Amino acid sequence: MEESNLDILAKTVKDIKGIDKNSASLRYQTTTQLVRGYSGIDKATGAVNTPVYQSALFAHPAFDESTGFSYSRVGNPTRLELENTIAMLEHGLKAWAFASGMAAISILLKLFSQGDHILVSNDLYGGTYRLFTTIYGKFGLEFSYVDTSHTEEIEAAIRPNTKAIFLETPSNPMMNVTDLQAVSAISKKHNVWMIVDNTFLSPYFQKPIDFGADIVIHSGTKYIGGHNDILSGFIVLADSELIEQIYTLSISEGGMLSPFDSWLTLRSLKTLAIRLERQQENAFKIVKFLKAHPVVDQVHYVGDPDHPGYELSKRQTTGFGGMISFSLKRAADVVPTLNHLKLVLFAESLGGTETLLTFPLVQTHAAIPEEMREKAGVNDRLLRLSVGIEDAEDVISDLDQALRGGRDDGR
Length: 411
Fold this sequence. Notes:
Elements: H1 6-12, H2 30-36, H3 77-89, E1 94-98, H4 101-109, E2 117-121, H5 126-135, E3 142-146, H6 151-157, E4 162-168, H7 180-190, E5 193-197, H8 202-205, E6 215-219, E7 233-237, H9 243-253, H10 259-269, H11 272-292, E8 296-300, H12 310-316, E9 323-328, H13 334-339, E10 345-346, E11 356-358, H14 370-376, E12 382-386, H15 392-403
Parallel strand pairs: 2-3, 2-4, 4-5, 5-6, 10-11
Antiparallel strand pairs: 1-7, 6-7, 8-9, 9-12, 11-12
Helix pairs in contact: 3-10, 4-5, 11-15
């Protein structure tokens, strides 16, 4: 039955319908929504947590009758609760959960056709660049990379065949902030989609749809999962006209999030507000430390009043998050710093409970050409810090001894 045409599927699968905008749960504050989810308790059993529906298929009561589910690639009750919760949090109409953030972006790119042009933030995750240029470039999609924090560059780069503007804000790893309302105005003027990667702030601190985004994506592996134990990705739509297209792509290609990982993510969402508040609190302390350290050259954190995007961030977000990047005065100090870490982990993800230090040049951004990296500021002195929920003083103490490379000469 899962291979029937879309019209038949739409009659039997609740997964395509999206969230009920009249639901009382939508009226709660974000923190309450995180804890309780879209449906609250399970209505049939009273279970406080959504059960894991670990089933590949679902039986039909009779011919032309359905429980609303048929096959887990098409729709699964556990995953649907997660998807509806994410859509609710992002103020979207419909969300889909995939096995990774890159799987979500890959599905998204299949909305486009050969010859379509997409404008992209020039400071972005290297894996996204690789997917765009190396994989989809050979299928005839065209990509141009601009500094989206300077909206005049976006306007100047629009072509007749431009179909979308894809941006990260804050950007990875330079923490550039893009004016969402300004980009939305440009996208509407030129009738192109505005796509925002909201991974760095999550729907707890930023809701791009409220500022005009048509599509929001996440690597749910990061803050949404939050414990470095789940891979996941999300697409959230504000445009109802795209629902059937994404639905068809998702059930045709697969790559959906498993029921158990959906359940784990629902569990993780319950503590997202608490985790992010603690990570932000720690980040403020660590930024103060880094700015005064003799080995450190520059610090990039959107919650720093000295950051050029600070005032804009205050207008379009409710918090600054836990991501910091900083450059050292000497490239020669990078490797000794990484090698002397004791508490902070040298790893290339972000958003989890553990504090992680990353060397973007050789880890997250190695796929980006050198000239493009240098222009964006991703050089051999830059490090990216994902602040965890440990005691901030312990993290600062470890960073201090690592930055000094085990020396006590005070440099």
